[in-house]
Design a protein that fits this description.
The complex is a heterodimer of chains A (647) and B (426). By secondary structure, chain A is an alpha+beta fold. Chain A is built from 21 helices and 22 strands. The chains are: A alpha+beta (647), B mainly alpha (426). At the A-B interface, helix 1 of A face helix 8, helix 14, helix 15, helix 16 and helix 17 of B.
């Protein structure tokens, strides 16, 4: 026993130590990674972010240097605080506060003292920098917008947050990442790959030298330039027309699905999200819950499409063979089921065939057609599913799959939807007639409607809308170059297209004709409601217009919706007509129409629900006339005096 | 191995091979821990690894010397060697040189010598000599006190030089005394002392007293045969309680703040997170860095000279007391386990050989060697991997330093010599 005491102690200690080492080195330790080694400093070398060009090769987004004043608190010596503060345009209290914050973070490590100096401030400061020990200037690259338009398309970049860093370890604190628009969609392409240098440091955080002579260091790979499908002139014109209105414009090239213009109103100047004012301005935009400038109405505004949806019902009816193009239906200022009026209509000749039904936008005609579709099968659910599949083949009722990161799926109800609402087989065509005229359960976004117009213009197929035209040294994803076919046979399109053509010739948009261009379109008017103090209140109708032109081999398909614009041709129709002329002809011949749009504002209409007083809608409203909105001059964009992001 | 026929093989080669492995591996790690930039020459005398190579060279001269001296010399001259060593320790008070607050070195030109490293083998020899005396009987208090006096003298001298770590080494002689016949009661006392001290510090006096009472009266009720009287039990309990209180007082009023902090960190006594943070910053910096370095090595390590924390000198004193963290970072779990196994095998081998000695002197000395190596190994590696509060003592054969290396070499090779001589004993 006496002999064993030390022996057993030695063995016990040995085993205990091995267990402890196992815990420290094997059990508790992740695989070694140079990136997570605290003894190695990682110095990143940021590549140039790719430029963004429009479809004609015009530069839209470039880069500009920005200068941060950095501080290493421990190295700060005696300085003329007053002079320093006035150079940086901060108060003495700011100086104290920022300095203490930096010191608290670390006396040894650099902190940002004042971020993103303007070029002028930098120029003045740089000469005097030697007087201020412990401070230095660090260069960063920011976006430089060569334009004031397309904020919703171009997007912006901002610093990554903790959540992004956790999800994508590529990003480190302080890195910039695309936050909206193409900056977000094509982040991977635009950003390039940053280079890295590994530097061995000692326990005082001083650099000793390159780790292993730089064996693992990498060079930065510059970001690729991209060309987007936006026609910046059309975009700019669209934004001009949208001034003082709220709504969205989506213009597509039906022959390839390229988004020619994507306008949302109200928008903002992308330059305000660059530089020192960024967070302040962003907060302002973000908090504006009434005008919602960050809400892309072209992509996100989901509403009942109204009359433009009628053409889909016409096409489905032809495909299902439930109606003949010449068959006429009577309209008695509405559709009557027995003696009950299911839906109203406006005054026009009666009875109407399909062509007149479309061009006169006859509600009764489409209720008849719709009922034929739904009643074709014994089971209304099966019929509804069939109808739903046809409608969805136009890209409605689900996300389109375009390359911008915001959107809404829209809604095309099917049999299940009504089974859930009314109970199995406890409903029929009369329950859902609102779908006949694009009201009720059907909902769509402007880009879906533009795409629908493109599919009709193409007589049965469309390309997934997209914003990317070219990626430097790369090809665009094949899903944007393969056509998607609708479930409607090509031969059924011609009568419908003719109906849409007659909308301009003799129908609801006959005042909007453009000499020399054959336009096919469809007006729409959508009722809408808002809850004011808990009471559902009707507001002035939305003005909707969907069109494509020319009639054969269309070059542009467009959907416009103007909130509370009252009727289809009033705002949206005029704007569509102007946009089409601008795109196809390059010039506007009907300046009176342009003037009308530019001098009429809907701002007082938008203020009504918030006035706290009862207000009138639709017929009883009068339009607000304003001074004509001026287009910005092209050379104004690069001039620093006109746009000061720091203000 | 036929020891009797071949003179060259009479030394114990297991010990010698382990020794060689340890010093070689130690030197490689010292090189890792102390090199600056590219290694230009192994004999760079401005850097620890160059100097240590010279120390190693001299070590082999020492070994040859020790092995060539007649084995009986060590027994005969044990007392004189002990007296010389003690005088060397006393001399420090007059001629010594202060390094880091400890007056433990003689300065000879640019070289320094640390007599406390040599006092260990001298004390071991003296203890062996005293205990192997036919008149010594470890069952009598008088002889026990004398034996303790032999180890207390160097312990106190070293403590007075402010080298608390080295003092602790002399506690290892308890293993020797116990092996040589110290009563069981002492083992019980030592164990209860440790347990009581830890309990008192960690949980306070009252819980400790309750635990002690339960154990003491438990023994009283269940041991029916040789039952101690009730009064005896009460007295023992009172002693336990007063001892616990004593420990608390000692901790709070006698220990220096940095020693208090080390124990506090070890037993996790501090609950206030702010104070704990401060304490960690002040006291546990080395410990945290060394644990991180060891952990970062993972299973197979980052490779020789590739340790980023070692290269960045994150662990202070890494080439001396914290050399084991270099092993951890660069050689990983495989390396650290290898070193632990080498030490365990070495100590067990010495124990095994000690038990087979014919003379009591050799056996006691062997036991002392094993105990000293064991306590060094346990405290040093235990501290570096965070199991034991910070105590500054070197890892034998591994840590940088001439005195330490030579002290341990002499300690070990005197035993190798004694062992080789056992065929001549009768």
């Amino acid at each position: 026993m006496r002999k064993l005491l030390l022996l057993l102690t030695v063995i016990t200690v040995g085993l205990l130590f091995i267990a402890r080492l196992f815990y420290l080195q094997v059990y508790n330790e992740k695989a070694y990674s140079l990136y997570e080694d605290n003894a190695i400093r990682k110095v990143y070398n940021y590549p140039k972010r790719g430029y963004v060009y429009d479809r004609s090769g015009k530069l839209l987004v470039a880069n500009q240097p920005s200068y941060d004043v950095m501080v290493i608190p421990r190295e700060v010596g005696a300085l003329d605080t007053l002079e320093f503060c006035s150079l940086l345009k901060i108060t003495k209290e700011d100086f104290k506060r920022i300095y203490e914050k930096a010191y608290k973070y670390s006396p040894r490590l650099p902190s940002v003292f004042v971020p993103q100096l303007s070029k002028n401030d930098y120029a003045v400061l740089q000469e005097k920098m030697r007087k201020f020990d412990g401070f230095y200037i660090q260069k960063r690259s920011l976006r430089d917008y060569q334009t004031t338009i397309g904020a919703n398309v171009l997007g912006d970049i901002g610093e990554v947050n903790r959540r992004i860093i956790e999800k994508y370890p590529y990003y480190k604190m302080g890195d910039l990442i695309g936050k909206q628009g193409v900056e977000l969609s094509y982040e991977d392409v635009l950003r390039g790959v940053k280079g890295i240098k590994f530097i061995q440091k000692d326990r005082f955080n001083k650099n000793i030298g390159p780790y292993k002579e730089g064996k693992f260091d990498t060079l930065p790979q510059p970001g690729k330039d991209i060309t987007i499908t936006i026609d910046s002139e059309l975009q700019q014109y669209g934004e001009l027309l949208m001034t003082n209105k709220r709504g969205g414009i989506v213009a597509l090239d039906p022959s390839n699905g390229e988004i020619l213009a994507l306008v949302t109103g109200p928008s903002y100047n992308p330059n305000i999200l660059v530089g020192r004012g960024r967070s302040k301005n962003f907060t302002k935009l973000f908090r504006d819950s009434i005008a919602k400038p960050l809400f892309d109405r072209g992509l996100q505004a989901q509403y009942p499409p109204g009359s433009p949806f009628k053409v889909i019902n016409a096409l489905i009816a032809l495909q299902e063979g439930v109606v003949d193009t010449n068959e006429k239906f009577t309209c008695r200022m509405g559709y009557y089921y027995g003696s009950r009026k299911l839906t109203g209509c406006h005054h026009h000749k009666s009875p109407v065939n399909m062509n007149k039904g479309i061009s006169q936008s006859c509600n009764a005609y489409f209720v008849n057609v719709y009922r034929r579709i739904v009643d074709k099968y014994d089971d209304a659910g099966d019929a509804m599913n069939k109808w739903s599949d046809h409608a969805k083949s136009f890209g409605l009722g689900n996300f389109l799959g375009y390359d911008l990161q915001v959107g809404r799926p829209g809604r095309i109800p099917d049999g299940n939807y009504y089974d859930r609402a009314y109970g199995d087989n406890r409903w029929g065509s009369t329950y859902t007639v609102s779908n006949a005229i694009g009201q009720g359960e059907v909902e769509a976004t402007p880009i879906q409607l533009a795409n629908m117009a493109a599919a009709i213009g193409n007589r049965g197929y469309y390309y997934t809308p997209h914003i990317i035209k070219e990626i430097e040294g790369d090809t665009i994803p094949s899903k944007y170059t393969t056509p998607k076919h609708t479930t409607i046979d090509k031969r059924h399109f011609e009568p419908v297209v003719q109906g849409m053509f007659d909308v301009y010739n003799e129908g609801t948009a006959s005042t909007l004709r453009i000499p020399g261009i054959e336009i096919c379109g469809k007006t729409g008017t959508a009722e809408n409601f808002m809850k004011i103090d808990g009471v559902k209140t009707q507001l002035t109708d939305h003005s909707i217009f969907v069109a494509f032109a020319p009639k054969d081999n269309p070059k542009i398909a467009i959907a416009i919706f103007v909130e509370n614009g009252y009727w289809g041709s009033r705002f949206a129709g005029r704007m569509a007509s102007l946009m089409i002329e601008k795109y196809l002809k390059g010039d506007i011949t009907r300046t009176d129409m342009e003037n009308w749009i530019l001098t009429h504002s809907l701002e007082n209409e938008y203020a009504k629900p918030y006035s706290g007083e009862p207000f009138k809608i639709n017929k009883e409203t009068t339009l607000q006339v304003v001074e004509k909105v001026q287009a910005p001059k092209n050379n104004e964009f690069n001039n620093d005096s006109s746009i000061n992001p720091n203000q | 191995m036929n020891r009797e026929n071949h003179r060259g093989f009479k030394f114990d080669w297991v010990i010698i091979i382990i020794f060689l492995l340890l010093v070689t591996f130690g030197w490689l790690n010292i090189m890792s821990a102390s090199h600056v930039g590219e290694i230009e020459s192994y004999f760079d005398m401005s850097l620890p690894y160059g100097k240590h190579l010279v120390f190693l060279g001299l070590t082999f001269v020492l070994i040859v010397l020790i092995l060539s001296i007649e084995a009986k010399f060590y027994e005969r001259f044990a007392s004189i060697i002990y007296i010389v060593a003690m005088l060397a320790l006393v001399g420090l008070f007059i001629f010594g040189k202060d390094v880091n607050g400890a007056r433990s070195w003689y300065g000879i030109g640019s070289m320094t010598l640390q007599p406390s490293e040599f006092a260990k083998f001298a004390t071991a020899l003296a203890v062996a000599k005293y205990m192997s005396d036919l008149q010594t009987d470890m069952n009598t208090l008088k002889h026990q006190l004398r034996a303790v006096a032999i180890i207390i003298l160097p312990a106190i001298l070293i403590l007075l030089q402010n080298d608390a770590g080295s003092t602790l080494v002399y506690a290892s002689f308890f293993f020797v005394f116990y092996r040589e016949g110290l009563q069981q009661i002492y083992l019980a006392i030592v164990l209860s002392t440790i347990v009581l001290a830890v309990l008192a510090l960690k949980f306070g006096i009252l819980p400790t007293a309750i635990v002690a009472a339960i154990i003491v009266f438990g023994i009283y009720f269940f041991r029916r045969k040789k039952r101690a009287s009730l009064i005896q039990s009460v007295v023992i309990l009172l002693i336990c309680i007063s001892f616990s209180s004593g420990v608390k007082v000692f901790y709070e009023h006698v220990l220096k703040p940095h020693q208090q902090n080390r124990i506090s960190l070890w037993l996790r006594l501090e609950k206030d997170p702010l104070k704990l943070e401060k304490m960690k910053k002040e006291e546990a910096y080395n410990l945290i860095q060394s644990e991180k370095a060891i952990s970062s090595g993972g299973f197979s390590g980052k490779g020789f000279l590739e340790g980023t924390r070692t290269t960045g000198k994150f662990v202070p004193e890494q080439h001396t007391d914290y050399i084991f963290s270099t092993v951890g970072e660069e050689w990983g779990f495989l390396g650290t386990t290898f070193v632990v196994i080498l030490f365990v095998v070495l100590i067990i081998r010495i124990l095994f050989l000690a038990e087979s000695q014919k003379s009591q002197f050799s056996r006691v000395y062997g036991y002392a060697v094993a105990s000293i190596l064991f306590i060094h190994f346990t405290i040093n590696t235990g501290m570096v991997m965070g199991l034991i509060p910070t105590v500054g003592i070197p890892l034998p054969f591994f840590s940088y330093g001439g005195s330490g290396l030579w002290g341990f070499t002499i300690l070990l090779f005197i035993f190798v010599k004694l062992d080789s001589n056992k065929i001549n004993e009768w």
